[in-house]
Amino acid sequence: MVFLEQMDLVMEVNIFKNSKQALDKIESHCLAHSFIEICGFLGYDTQKRKYIVQLENNRSPDPQNFFAIDPLKYLLFKQKYTLAAVFHSHIIGDEQASEFDIKMSENSCIPFLVYGLNTNKFCIYQPKSIECDKKIIKRIKANI
Prior knowledge:
Structural class: alpha+beta
Distance between the termini: 45 Å
Number of helices: 5
CATH superfamily: Cytidine Deaminase, domain 2
CATH topology: Cytidine Deaminase, domain 2
Helix content: 25-40%
Largest sheet: 6 strands, mixed
Number of domains: 1
Order of helices and strands: HEHEEHEHEEH
CATH class: Alpha Beta
Shape: globular
CATH architecture: 3-Layer(aba) Sandwich
Radius of gyration: 14 Å
């Protein structure tokens, strides 16, 4: 049996005082890697009262058009933090959630935060049935 080291489980974790700083980090990472869809988790640490941005490797076989995140990393993130949204970038088109994004968000009951490289804007898609804290989403929306 192979045990994973902590370094194998997390690409990069960043902690911020407010949602504006967290969004700025996501934006800068997307701009620095404009040739593939960037992805990860945006969450909240309720004990520290801080926002968490966990950048993940895009595991899609076609990372220029799609993103995929290791399900184990999703479960580990949710175990440690309050998940606010799954984020990713669109390198083609705008910041609006694609049909596929909407379908995945609705199926998972998790908001999808999309950053459009061509528009330099964010959009957050909220599914009809939502699993996360709506107050956190409201604070994030205030900074988009």
